[in-house]
Design goal:
Length: about 300
């Protein structure tokens, strides 16, 4: 059973999927972590909180989840490369529960916790858009929730209607949950290292912190991380770009799914433009705080 294919590590899409999973799991690379940060005070210890969240997440995902799920996947599926979105959760683990004592009880606990994880993740992903609609467009809470709920329902209905073969779900999952999150995280890495600056980032992170981030971490964030992510992105496009394009042009459902993504993206860009014009008319940009380089 132990016959790893180390050649997979040479494929950029392997590192693309791994990095995207980390970004999604830690809410890094899209608006969730930024929305969470807006609720923090300047003196809150983000260093210790970030270390605790990332360490516990990786311990449960890699050490516990990986040691159980991956061997079981090889046993019941034979390989992971051809596994779909639901294979690990809805094919592998039910087989594991069927072979263990009190399997129905543990199966109930598993799917109940999976349900809670899905609900909490959905709320965390919807909240940044709700906050933007409220603050950017001046909508009331019920109006912003209704608008976002309508968009979400349309997307969910699209996935359910084209559920055969899970082509729509897999396409949306890849482009939104893998590729675009990776791209956003890559852009943020360049913004942090080369626009904000590691000196200011280090200073801001240590307001109220009880432990210090080693300086070499800032060097990695400025030089290594952006280059690493850019190399993975370029390598993935070079090796898999034709297959990405072929799937969108030859599979009608995949093409419509990607078109739906572009439609939602266009709507968000339009609302951002409207919000920017509104804030400019209100003079909000003139009242932005200026960093003085100190602790004030």
């Amino acid at each position: 059973m132990w016959n790893p294919d180390f050649q997979v590590l040479a494929k950029p899409q392997t590192w693309l999927a791994a990095a995207s999973q980390i970004f999604f799991s830690l809410s890094v690379g899209f608006g969730v972590i930024i929305n969470y940060a807006s609720y923090l005070k300047k003196k809150d210890d983000v260093v210790l909180s970030g270390l605790t969240a990332s360490a516990m997440n990786e311990f449960f995902e890699v050490c516990l989840g990986g040691l159980i799920t991956i061997p079981a996947a090889f046993m019941f599926l034979g390989a992971l490369s051809n596994s779909g979105t639901f294979d690990l959760g809805f094919k592998v683990l039910p087989n594991v529960f069927a072979q263990m004592p009190a399997g129905r009880f543990f199966g109930f606990l598993w799917f109940f916790m999976l349900f809670l994880a899905a609900i909490t993740s959905s709320l965390s992903m919807l909240q940044p858009v709700i906050a933007f609609l409220e603050e950017g467009l001046g909508l009331k809470r019920h109006a912003s929730v209704a608008m976002l709920g309508l968009i979400t329902a349309m997307g969910s209905g699209f996935v359910v209607y084209f559920s055969k073969g899970m082509m729509a779900l897999d396409t949306l999952d890849f482009w939104v949950g893998t590729m675009f999150i990776f791209v956003l995280a890559m852009i943020q890495s360049f913004l942090y290292g080369w626009v904000l600056g590691i000196e200011k980032g280090d200073r801001e992170a240590h307001h109220g912190a009880h432990m210090r981030i080693p300086w070499f971490v800032q060097i990695l964030l400025k030089y290594v991380t952006p280059v690493y992510l850019l190399a993975i992105f370029i390598g993935s496009l070079y090796s898999q770009g034709p297959s990405y394009w072929k799937s969108l042009t030859t599979e009608p459902v995949a093409g419509m799914s990607f078109g739906l993504i572009l439609l939602v993206l266009g709507f968000l860009l339009l609302t951002i433009h409207i919000a920017g014009r509104r804030w400019e008319a209100e003079g909000r940009f003139k009242n932005l705080p200026v960093d003085d380089g100190g602790d004030a």
